[in-house]
């Protein structure tokens, strides 16, 4: 018999993760991203307390295109983590374990993330 050199299990190039697995992984990643964002927020507050020169530098960094992109990503992470956290709260009450409900709540969570992000940025740009 000839042996074939092939993987014993599907690898990420051919295996498509289900939505619920992607939501779980993304929830963990956004949790880490929120911690990094909080460190940046603490640095910004520290610059504000240090004086006008340090605050001007921090404001110019956050006001740059890359800074705004990071702030946008942080806000998306915040609203995604919030929405998914509400899903977990509902699961703690025993609701939503059936597969159709789990997928429906995943789509609702993604929709809430998009709507809250757009509303927050629209409100910030109008001020």
UniProtKB/TrEMBL annotation:
GO biological process per UniProt: tricarboxylic acid cycle
Cofactors (names): heme
Residue numbers binding heme: 81
Transmembrane segments: 29-49, 61-82, 102-126
Membrane topology: Multi-pass membrane protein
Protein name (record): Succinate dehydrogenase cytochrome b556 subunit
Pfam family, one: Sdh_cyt
Organism: Magnetospirillum aberrantis SpK
Bound cofactor: record note: The heme is bound between the two transmembrane subunits.
GO MF term list: electron transfer activity; metal ion binding
Keywords from the UniProt entry: Heme, Iron, Membrane, Metal-binding, Transmembrane, Transmembrane helix
InterPro entries assigned: SQR/QFR_C/D, Succ_DH_cyt_bsu_CS, Succ_DH_cytb556, SuccDH_FuR_B_TM-su
Function: Membrane-anchoring subunit of succinate dehydrogenase (SDH).
Similarity comment: Belongs to the cytochrome b560 family.
Subunit structure comment from the entry: Part of an enzyme complex containing four subunits: a flavoprotein, an iron-sulfur protein, plus two membrane-anchoring proteins, SdhC and SdhD. The complex can form homotrimers.
GO cellular component annotations of the record: membrane
Annotated localization: Membrane
């Amino acid at each position: 018999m000839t042996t074939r050199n092939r993987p014993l299990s599907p690898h990420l190039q051919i295996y498509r993760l289900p939505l619920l697995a992607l939501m779980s992984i993304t929830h963990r990643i956004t949790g880490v991203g929120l911690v990094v964002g909080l460190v940046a927020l603490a640095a910004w507050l520290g610059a504000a307390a240090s004086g006008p020169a340090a605050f001007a530098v921090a404001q110019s960094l956050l006001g740059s295109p890359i800074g705004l992109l990071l702030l946008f990503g942080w806000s998306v992470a915040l609203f995604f983590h919030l929405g998914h956290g509400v899903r977990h709260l509902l699961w703690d009450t025993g609701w939503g374990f059936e597969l159709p409900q789990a997928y429906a709540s995943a789509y609702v969570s993604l929709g809430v993330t998009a709507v809250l992000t757009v509303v927050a940025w629209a409100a910030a740009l109008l001020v």
